[in-house]
């Protein structure tokens, strides 16, 4: 007898004793599992409601019958022989039995039969209990997996894609975000499949799936929705350009050759892109429009991507082309030749008219795009990380030119360099600055860093530590574009800054707009109360100059004095200025 059986019988005899028969009666009647009791002669003496529901027989029809009445007849005589054998030796049997309902329908149940013996050891009753077969979790999981995945590539299938897209769309709608859907069709797949066979085709699809996954983030969805059709969903993109960038990456990754079963294969993609909300707000419309765009991509010569909305193609095309040009221009910088140059704009002490310094402003002149505004290309450089090498070059080149200026006899001029947020996130900025100062034999006082207000506020801890170290080196720090962000006075006090540069937008209308005038007045007073110097940017008229002078603004910069000039003109300007002051 197994341990369980012994234990079970012990329970029957001892533990039940304190409970009244009524309790057992109720437990029996109300059990959700079908139960029956027979006498020692195997005739049914009791059934509960659950068994009546399960079998379709009434209690009256069952009582007095042999439980065979429930049997489906599927089991063999050997099966029953083994059952009785076990029951007789172990007082217990369990296993699956197919039963038949009154109306003929078969049902499978897990049946447990116990022998209840009398005090003298003879058989009193048989108790049988019929429970649901417990789901096999592994099988169930596998089935669920297969329902939502493509077995060849293990990517989500069409069903999963549709439900996840619908879900992403709901959260984009809630959060006011955009979403991009890309439909990707392989250009050459049918050919490969037809000539090299399905096995090679399958291996190729698996490699494509893998490369696609590598092109996107974990949170993006990649699914296979047809033979050689894949989709990528980019949820919550900032701008359509993000989709164009991912599409370019997919193009270049998929276009690389595949080595499969001794073949070198090529399978470039044609990609159609639709965007939520402009191209549709439900999965069906977005997919249809991505499909249309995909056919445009095929017609445009394959191995390219197209947006559903035509003007998106132009905008992103130009932007990507500019990004490419910028990348190449940065890679091609050399001492002899560069598409980049620094221009300089003087900063004038308000009371004396003396030139205290100049601000270095980056210029880019590209053969394809001509001169590009820094507002435009710096934004691209920041978005793509190109600002790192470009910003490094600006620091390096500024220091070189300061050396040249000094050699030409120009003294006491500080050159301000604009530093972007990403540069302030890496400690190597400090190394670079030290290196450049040492290389050109400059003092920290020869340069100044301008950091925009939003940069100084963003990621304060790391930024603060780097700013502190720069200040400790003796480099003057200024907050640029002040007034456009949300700096708190309390926070400003913690920054090791010397200057605030009042944003040009407040200066422009200072005489006509009472709000702007009030902001300038307050900012200057506030800055002074913190011991900071105030610089006004974009001073174009004498009236603006007089107004700012009246408020006690320390330094002025703007077209009124000079536009940003190329280096040679700057040197000439500064020399003339020094000569004029010397003769006064
Ligand atoms: P910013 O640092 O605030 O530079 C002042 C901008 O105002 C410059 O524009 C300058 O040409 C312009 N400006 C100066 N005076 C006047 C004026 O009287 N009237 C008008 N209308 N504009 C005036 P620019 O050169 O186009 O530069 C734009 C921005 O690009 C700069 O703003 C700066 O944030 C960024 N930038 C320029 N060079 C660099 C650089 O080397 N590195 C980084 N990270 N950013 C740079
Ligand atoms: Mg600046
Ligand atoms: Mg500014």
How many domain modules?
3
Topology-level CATH name of the largest domain: TIM Barrel
Find the CATH superfamily of the largest domain: EAL domain
Number of helices: 22
Largest sheet: 8 strands, mixed, barrel
Under the CATH scheme, which architecture of the largest domain would be assigned?
Alpha-Beta Barrel
Backbone shape? elongated
Task: Spell out which ligands are present.
Answer: ligand C2E, magnesium ion
How many β-strands, per DSSP? 21
> Order of strands side by side in the largest beta sheet?
13-14-16-17-18-19-20-21
Report the CATH C-level class of the largest domain. Answer: Alpha Beta
**How would you classify the helix and strand content by structural class?**
alpha/beta
Strand content: 15-25%
- Outline the low-pLDDT stretches: 1-7, 9-16
* Share of helical residues: 40-55%
Average pLDDT taken over every residue: 90
Q: Measured on Cα atoms, how large is the radius of gyration?
A: 41 Å
N-C termini distance: 119 Å
Describe the structure.
47% of the residues lie in helices and 23% in strands. Mean pLDDT is 90; it is low at 1-7 and 9-16. The N and C termini lie far apart (119 Å). The protein is built from 22 helices and 21 strands. With 584 residues, the protein is α/β, with parallel strands linked by helices. β16 (414-419), α15 (428-439) and β17 (447-452) form a beta-alpha-beta unit. Strands 13-14-16-17-18-19-20-21 form an eight-stranded mixed beta barrel, surrounded by five helices. The chain folds into three domains: 5-146, Beta-Lactamase, CATH 3.30.450; 149-308, Reverse transcriptase/Diguanylate cyclase domain (Alpha-Beta Plaits); 322-579, TIM Barrel (Alpha-Beta Barrel), CATH 3.20.20. Bound molecules: ligand C2E and magnesium ion (MG) (2 copies). One magnesium ion binds next to β18. The site of one magnesium ion has 4 residues, from β18.
């Amino acid at each position: 007898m197994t341990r369980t059986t012994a234990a079970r019988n012990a329970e029957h005899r001892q533990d039940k004793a304190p409970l009244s028969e009524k309790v057992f009666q109720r437990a029996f009647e109300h059990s959700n599992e079908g139960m029956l009791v027979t006498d020692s002669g195997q005739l049914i003496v009791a059934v509960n409601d659950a068994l009546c529901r399960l079998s379709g027989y009434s209690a009256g029809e069952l009582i007095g019958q042999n439980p065979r009445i429930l049997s489906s007849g599927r089991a063999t005589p050997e099966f029953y022989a083994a059952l009785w054998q076990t029951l007789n030796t172990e007082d217990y049997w369990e296993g699956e039995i197919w039963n038949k309902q009154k109306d003929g329908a078969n049902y499978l149940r897990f049946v447990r039969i116990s022998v209840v013996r009398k005090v003298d050891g003879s058989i009193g009753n048989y108790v049988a209990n019929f429970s649901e077969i417990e789901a096999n979790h592994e099988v169930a999981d596998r089935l669920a997996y297969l329902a939502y995945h493509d077995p060849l590539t293990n990517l989500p299938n069409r069903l999963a894609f549709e439900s996840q897209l619908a879900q992403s769309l709901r959260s984009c709608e809630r959060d006011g975000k955009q979403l991009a859907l890309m439909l990707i069709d392989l250009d050459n797949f049918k050919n490969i499949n037809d000539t090299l066979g399905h096995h090679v085709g399958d291996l190729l699809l698996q490699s494509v799936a893998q490369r696609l996954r590598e092109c996107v983030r974990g949170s993006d969805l990649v699914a296979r929705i047809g033979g050689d059709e894949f989709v990528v969903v980019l949820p919550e993109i900032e701008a359509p350009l993000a989709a164009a960038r991912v599409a370019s990456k997919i193009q270049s990754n998929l276009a690389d050759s595949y080595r499969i079963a001794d073949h070198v294969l090529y399978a470039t993609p044609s990609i159609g892109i639709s965007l939520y909300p402009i191209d549709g707000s439900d999965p069906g419309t977005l997919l249809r429009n991505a499909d249309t765009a995909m056919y445009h991509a095929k017609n445009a010569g394959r191995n390219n991507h197209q947006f559903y909305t035509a003007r998106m193609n132009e905008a992103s095309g130009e932007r990507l082309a500019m990004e490419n040009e910028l990348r190449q221009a940065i890679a091609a910088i050399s001492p002899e030749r560069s598409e980049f140059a620094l221009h300089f704009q003087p900063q004038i002490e308000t009371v004396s008219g003396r030139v205290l310094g100049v601000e270095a402003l980056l210029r880019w002149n590209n053969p394809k795009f001509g001169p590009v505004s820094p507002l435009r290309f710096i934004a691209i450089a920041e978005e793509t990380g190109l600002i790192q090498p470009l910003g490094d070059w600006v620091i390096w080149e500024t220091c070189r030119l300061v050396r040249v200026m000094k050699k030409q006899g120009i003294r006491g001029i500080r050159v301000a360099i604009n530093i972007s947020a990403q540069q302030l996130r890496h400690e190597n900025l400090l190394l670079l600055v030290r290196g450049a100062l040492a290389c050109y034999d400059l003092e920290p006082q020869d340069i100044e860093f301008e950091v925009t207000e939003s940069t100084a506020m963003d990621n304060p801890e790391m930024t603060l530590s780097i700013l502190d170290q720069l200040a400790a080196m003796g480099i003057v720090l200024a907050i640029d574009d002040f007034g456009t962000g949300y700096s708190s006075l309390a926070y400003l006090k913690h920054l090791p800054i010397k200057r605030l540069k009042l944003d040009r937008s407040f200066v422009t209308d200072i005489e006509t707009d009472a709000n702007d005038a009030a902001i300038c007045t307050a900012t200057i007073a506030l800055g002074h109360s913190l011991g900071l110097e105030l610089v006004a940017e974009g001073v174009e008229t004498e009236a603006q100059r007089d107004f700012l002078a009246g408020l006690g603004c320390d330094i002025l910069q703007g077209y009124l004095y000079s536009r940003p000039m190329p280096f040679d003109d700057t040197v000439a300007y500064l020399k003339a200025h020094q000569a004029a002051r010397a003769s006064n």
